[in-house]
Amino acid sequence: MRIISGLYKSRKIIAPKNLPVRPTTDMAKESLFNIINNLYYFDAITVLDLFAGTGNISYEFASRGTENITCVDQDFGCIKFINQTAEAFDMPLQTIKSDVFKFLEKTKIQADVIFADPPYNFSEEQFSRIPDLVFGNNLLLEDGVLIVEHSKHTDLSNVKHFSYSKSYGGNMFSFFEITAQ
Known about the structure:
This is RsmD family RNA methyltransferase. By secondary structure, the protein is α/β, with parallel strands linked by helices. The chain has helices at 26-37, 56-63, 76-89, 100-106, 124-136, and strands spanning 46-50, 68-73, 93-97, 111-116, 140-151, 162-168, 171-177.
């Protein structure tokens, strides 16, 4: 995988083969960041990266100037790899080793962008729990967005707070926002 833009543009990051991950493709990541670039100033936002895996998405935010990034993953190897990479590139990433659902139930961290890349084989109920917990616990800041990456075979359009989705190859990004009551 490589960093698409910013301070670390074109840097390659090689994750150990034994990590239980499926990194977001470069094409999908570039398209996603084109959308985010039109919504926010990267140096002025707080990011929460759930199911962070290799840290691929967090590195992209850091490369573009985001300084407040928290990565959450339950796998020790993933957290260790993110910490090592963040240290090597001097990136301001904070990591939390935790089951994402337990983390969302207890955290008080609020963010402008919450990105979740859970396993593609999650059930619709498991996918739905992510926005339920994010919105139920008021974890998005004003004008914030929750982005959930999933397979094109998963439809989240009926989940509360769904706004829209974008498809890139086999990847989908569903966007969830606070809606006016």
